[in-house]
Structures are given as C-alpha cells and as structure tokens.
Amino acid sequence: MRKIKEIVGVKELRKNLELYIAEVTKGRSFMVLRRSKPVFSIGPVDTEENWVEAVDFTKIKTGGVKIEAVLSRL
Questions:
Q1: Does residue 20 sit within a domain?
Q2: Distance between CA atoms of 8 and 52, rounded to whole angstroms?
Q3: Nearest-angstrom CA–CA distance, 49 and 39
Q4: Contact assessment for residue 43 and residue 29, using Cβ atoms and an 8 Å cutoff
C-alpha cells in the first residue's frame, strides 16, 4: 500500500526548508506543487539499500571542504 503524501508549495518549502528536512528525516513525504501543479516529491531515502558513501569530506576537515578546493584537484 502506498503512503499518501502531504502537499506543500514551492514557496512554503523554500521558506521553511529546515522544518521540511526535519520532517522528512522523521519519515514524512511531501508532494511539492508550483502554481497548483505537482513538480516533484520529497521523502526519506532508504539508506540501507540505495546509498553508497563515496567520500565523507567532514572526515577531512570539520565542517566539510569547499567545492572549489575539490574541483581544483580534478
């Protein structure tokens, strides 16, 4: 059975992004609308099956590494 997603507008999502990130982390899903039309959905990632960590830049430097530093070495 498919879970029903809650609806949120793009402006609302942008305005309260941290709130929605926290809710998705708790397992909630949202259908995002722009001008009353669905454009994408957000929801939790199944980290056990689909996520492969390539590099954890926080292990290199606390707070991460600037993208410019990474790209300059490619």
A1: yes
A2: 29
A3: 25
A4: yes
Give the domain extent around 31: 1-45
Give the residues across from 31 on adjacent strands: 7, 41
Assess if residue 52 is contained within a domain. no
- Amino acid in position 31: M
Q: How many domains does the chain divide into?
A: 1
Q: How far apart are the C-alpha atoms of 69 and 74, rounded to whole Å?
A: 9
Distance of alpha carbon 20 from alpha carbon 14, whole angstroms: 9
Output the domain CATH number for residue 11: 3.40.1620.10
For 2-51, the pLDDT digits (tens) are 565 799 999 999 999 999 999 999 999 999 999 999 999 999 887 666 66
- Asked whether 30 and 20 are in contact (CB, 8 A), the reply is yes
Which residue, 3, 50, 55, is CA-closest to 31?
3
Whether 12 maps to a domain, the answer reads: yes
